[in-house]
Amino acid sequence: MAVTVLIQLAYPKALSYFIDNINVQKDMAWFSSLALIMLAVLAVQAVAATARYYIFESTGYMIVTRIRRQLYAALIGQPIRFFDKHHVGELNNRLTADVEVLHDTLTMGMAVSLRCLCVFIGGVVMLLTISPALCLMLVFFLPATLIIGKMTGKVYRKRARLMRDGQAECGKVAHEHFSNIRLVHAFSQQRTARARYAGATEHALSLSVSSSALFALFRGGSSFLVYLALLGTLWFGARLIGQGVLSVGDLTAFILYASMVTEAAGAIGEFWNAWMRTIGATEWIFEVVNSDRAPGAAKGEAHGEVRLQGNLAFNDVVFSYPERPDAQALKGIGFSIAAGETIALVGASGAGKSTIASLILGFYQPDSGSIAFDGIEAHAMPLAGIRSKLAIVEQEPSLFSGSIFENIAFAVAERGVTLDEVKAAAALAFAHDFISGFPDGYDTVVGERGAQLSGGQKQRIAIARALLRDPRILILDEATSALDSASELQVQRALDTLMQGRTTIIIAHRFSTIVKADRILVLDQGRLAQQGTHAQLVAQQDGLYFQLMRHQLARAGAQPVAA
Ligand SMILES: Nc1ncnc2c1ncn2[C@@H]1O[C@H](COP(=O)(O)OP(=O)(O)OP(=O)(O)O)[C@@H](O)[C@H]1O
């Protein structure tokens, strides 16, 4: 950078020397050697500019990648309540577009403004050496440019944050519709999707346009000041030439230095604004990254060996979701489950079954009361240690778009899993045969969210994944949609293997599952209404369980009886 700045600063002086010698030197050889020197200097400048460009660009990419990684690490470590508030599309947008804003400022913005600062200082020195009197003209104009830049900077910062929020909203809307594209087409809602996206982009656009007006005003104002300064210099310079205190070459050099200095001052002002915009746009990123460093933020990842037998107790647990603090999802739930017991959670929709599962998994903490594993309160143990002894098989199993091997091995991805281990788990889950039937076997790619697999196949892969984790406590969210009877049988056999010797909590929907459970917990609007075996509960004909069973069996044309 120093080389390019020095060369840039030398140009006007060389030009002045050239102009003042046009009428003095008669020898063409003098002009030729001057041209050769200039050529060599130009070549050096080109090499220096290339090196500068490379260094700044590549350093910018490195910094941005580092920040992106830090942001991703901070996001992935956020508690589940954070994801209740922030949409996936929004987060994706923050991770890509918001971080990208930093790149432009850190690379060319930073390079240009550093160079401009050097040119500015060097230019002022040159101006003073040529004519201190003419410099007085500039004294009025330069501070004005800098002050305008500083004033607009603050406004930019605020606006930039609003603009990034607007962009993130667009990302959220697009992601929502892309991820539910089948639903959008099935309900012919493409037009609504377009309208919602247009609405979001319209809002983002109006924010950007009003910011552009501010930017344009700043550009116009500073360029007016620059030309005004030039005009004043010419007027005063002509007078100094007339008085014989300045040569034509000196005035030319002065004007060139003056325009260099004002241009540099303008660029520094612009960079200041760009920097403010970047700070505004990336404030959210640094808030998240810093929140990750807050004490206790990484609790979910705190490792530590936890030995569990599988006893579990809820002691008078009260809980409201952070996004809905006024509605208690659990209103003083208490129960205990012995190691190896199979418990069915039943209750109407919204009764609190999934909430209980979320609290066992440590996604949320109770507002009051406590959860204990083997008699020890959960908050006294490392969360990751507890989770290493838990596994969940979801209603609609979540699969990654990678291979079947990767999806099963995900259970214990922190250690190297062998193909044999994965095959053994798949065999126990009755999945090995269908996986081997695929041309690519365990390397078969399952598509986004397992789109290339049937419902039963997805479930058996999820069961194999849970088996590989070898949990002490298992949470099963039973699928409500029925599989065909052959598939159902295979999934049931896989589940029976998985449940052997483990504490199992099933969010149960099927009669067959419910009656087989060792104990049934009946939930009613966040309260534990009844508990007991199927036989004990159907005997209480005024109880909620009897009613629930009556509804369920009415559809099957039967009466609730002890199994
Ligand atoms: N992430 C959330 N944020 C706010 N409220 C929630 C959230 N998840 C569930 N709820 C509310 O908490 C209550 C209990 O919901 P929960 O999902 O535990 O019921 P459920 O018994 O599992 O129902 P279903 O059988 O329909 O899945 C409901 O009123 C629900 O609207």
From TrEMBL:
GO molecular function: ABC-type oligopeptide transporter activity; ATP binding; ATP hydrolysis activity
Organism: Massilia violaceinigra
Regions that span the bilayer: 30-55, 112-130, 224-242, 254-275
InterPro entries to which the protein is assigned, alphabetical: AAA+_ATPase (IPR003593), ABC1_TM_dom (IPR011527), ABC1_TM_sf (IPR036640), ABC_transporter-like_ATP-bd (IPR003439), ABC_transporter-like_CS (IPR017871), P-loop_NTPase (IPR027417), Type_1_exporter (IPR039421)
GO biological process: one example: oligopeptide export from mitochondrion
Topology of the protein relative to the lipid bilayer: Multi-pass membrane protein
Positions of the ABC transporter domain: 312-550
Subcellular locations according to the entry: Cell membrane
Protein name: ABC transporter permease
Matching SUPFAM superfamilies: ABC transporter transmembrane region, P-loop containing nucleoside triphosphate hydrolases
Domain ABC transmembrane type-1: 1-277
GO CC terms of this entry: plasma membrane
Protein keywords: ATP-binding, Cell membrane, Membrane, Nucleotide-binding, Transmembrane, Transmembrane helix
Organism domain of life: Bacteria
CDD domains listed in its UniProt record: ABC_6TM_TAP_ABCB8_10_like
